[in-house]
Structures
1.
Amino acid sequence: MDPDVEIGLPPRSGDGIEVLLSEFAVWLDERRGLSSVTVVNYVKQVRKFLRLLVGASGGGTVDAVVTGLDGVQVTRFMVGYCQDRNVWSAKAMVTALRAFFRFAHASGRTSVLLTGAVPAVASWRGAVLPKSLSAEMVERLLFDGTDSATVTGRRDRAILMLMARLGLRSAEVTALELSDIDWRAGVLTIRGKGDRLGCGYRCPSNLVPRSQLG
C-alpha cells in the first residue's frame, strides 16, 4: 500500500520519510489489519511528526532520527503539538504515534518501546462548552427552547429564567417551594445549606405568572 497514492498525492521518490511511512502502512495493513482509511489517517499524522523531527535534526536521516528517539523528545513534541489544537486533533496524533512506536520497536528501529512516552489527552466532559452565553443565546434558549403551550414547557422556562435573570444555581432552584414565593411582593426566599433561609430576590418582572403554571 502506498500511503501517498491512498491520499491522492504523488509518491515522493527517494524521500526517506515516505519510504518509512510506506513500510509503516504495510505493517498496519498486514500485521494490525486496520482499514485503509485508518491507515491513511495514521500515516498523515506520523508524517507531521517525522518531518518536524528530521527538520530539527540539522540534516540527519529519518532512520538515525527514529533510532535516536527518547521519551523526552516524544513528550516535548506532544506538548508543543497540542497547543491551540482541539482534543480530537490531539487524540488523533496520540493514537497514530503509539501505533508508529509499536511498529518502530517491532521492526528493530528502536530498542525501547516508546508508547508510554506519548501522554494521554484529557477530555473532560463539557470541556469544550463556551465559558458563557451571549444575551441573544440566552433569549433563544428561554423562548425558542421551551414550549409555553405546555405545563412542562412553562415550568422549564421559569427555571431557566431564575437561573439566567437571578443567577441562581441549579440546587437553589431545585430547593424552591411554593411557600418561598411571596406573590404579592414579588420576592423569592432562597434556602441555603441545611435548609436555612437565605436572602430574598426580587422576581424578574417577566417571569412566568402564577396563573400560567397550571
2.
Amino acid sequence: MSEEDKEIDVGGRPSDFKEEFTEQAYKLCLLGATDKDLADFFLVCEATINNWKKSKEGFLESIRAGKRVADMEVAESLFNGARDRIVPKQQAFKVKEVSYNEKGQRVERETVQVVTLEEFLPGDFRNQQYWTKNRSPENWKDKQEVDHKSTDGTMSPRTTTIKFSKGSVGDGSSGGRTNDK
C-alpha cells in the first residue's frame, strides 16, 4: 500500500449509503417519516442516519426539505379544519313531471337530476383550540395563574381601615333608618 492510499483509508467497514437514499429520504419525510422511520427503512440504526446527515452531501438537506413540506401541509390542513367554510356538495334529486296526453290521460315521467349545493361546515373545535393555544398561549392557557402576593411581595394580608361618619352603621345610631312598623 502506498503512502497516498494510507492517508485515504479511514478504516472501518464501507458505508451502506447509496446515492438514491437522498431522494428516498426526501420522499419518506414527505409522508411524515421520522429519523427512526428512516433508520428502519434503510436497515440501519438511528445513529447511522445522524452520521449520514453530517457526512453525506445533500442527505440532511433532503430530510429537512421533506419534513418542511410535510409540516406545511399538515399546518395548512389544521388551519383549514379550524375555519368555518362552505363546500360544494352534489346531491341527486328525483324529479317527477306530470303531463296529459291528447286523450286527457295523465302521464308521469321521472328523472334523476344531480344538483350542486353549498354546505356549511363549522370549524373543528379541537383544531381551533390547538391553533389558538399555540399561536397565542398567553391568551389561551388552560391554567390561569393568579398572583396571591401583596404589593410588598409577601403573603401577609393587607390591613384595611374603615372610618365611619356620624349617623353611619356601627356608631349606635340608626344609620338614618327607622324601625317603623
3.
Amino acid sequence: MKPLKSKMALNHREERRKRELTNILFSSPDSRDEVEMALALSKSGCEPYRVASALSWKDFESFISKALEDMGFKVMKCFYTSEPRTQIDILAEKDYVILCIDCKHFSKQYSLSYMARIAKKQIHRANLLRMEVNPRARIVPTIVTLREDYPRNICQVPIVPTSLLPEFASRVTGLEEGIISI
C-alpha cells in the first residue's frame, strides 16, 4: 500500500507544479512569448484546454498554428481567398491534405444550430480555397475549439477540441467516412 500512497503524493506534487507554472505564465505581465510558454506547458503535461483557455483568441490561433508546425505541417495563418475575399484562420498542409481551420476560442457552450452555421461557413471557405491551391490536395474544413462537449463533427466538419488536436492531425487523411473533403 505504501508505494501507491507515494505515487499519489508524486501525482499531487506534479499537478501542483503544473498549476504553479500555469499561474506564473499567465499572471506575469512581462511574459513576452505566452504562446511558446503555453506550448511548453502543454508538452510538459498540462491540460491543453487549461493552457489554451488562458490565451487571448489571437494567441489561441498562434498556439494552434505552432502546435501544427511541431507536428510537421506547413502552416499559414490568416489566409485570404481572392474572390470573394474571405479570411481563413489557419491553413495547415501535410501529405496532400490541407486543413482549413477556423479557431473558436469559446468559453461558453453554443447551440448546435449555431455550430452548424459555423460549419457551413467553413465548408464555403474551403470551397473558395479549392480554386487557389494544389488540385491534388484534399481540403478538410475543420473547427478547432477549446470546448470538449461538442459532437466530433457537425455537417461533416470535424470539431476538434485542443486536447485531441495531436491525435486528429496525425490521423486525418481527408478520406475518413463522415468527414467532408473538398
4.
Amino acid sequence: MHHYPLFGSTLRDYLIGAWRVTRHIDDRRGGGTARFDGESTFLAVGDGLNYAESGCLTIGGQAHDAAQTNHWTFPADDIAEVQFADGRAFHTLILDGHSATATHHCTPDDYHGTYAFKSRDEWHLTWRVIGPRKDYTSRSVYTRLHRPSQSLVSGNQR
C-alpha cells in the first residue's frame, strides 16, 4: 500500500511542475537585504527530480540575473535527498506531517532549513545560516504556476 503524505501525493509528485519563487534575504552580518523573484521547475528524471531556478536577485537597488540547479532523489514517499548540481550532498529532508527540517554544514558555517507545505499549490522554505562568515535568513515562498499532468502526479506511473 502506498503512502501519500502531502495532500494526496508523494513528496516527489507534489514537487513536479513549475513554481513562482519569491525570496527575501535578511543579512545580519552585512546589514542589508536582498530579494529574488523568479521561477523554478522540478522536472522528472527517472525516479528523481532535477530542480532549476532562475530569476532576478536585487541587492542594494542593483538587479542581477541569478540561477541555481540541484538534483533530488526519493528513497521513500516522504524522504528527499538533495544534491548540488556537481553531485555533492546538500541535505536530506524527512516529512513530519506537512513540514520538514534539514541541516547542512558548509565549513565553517551551518545551514538550518525548515520546509512548510501549506497547500497543494504553496510551500515555504526558510534557511537560517550562522557561522563566522555568514549570518542571514532566507525566506522563500513557492507558488505553483502550472499543475502537472495527471500522468506525472500518479504515484503508480513512474
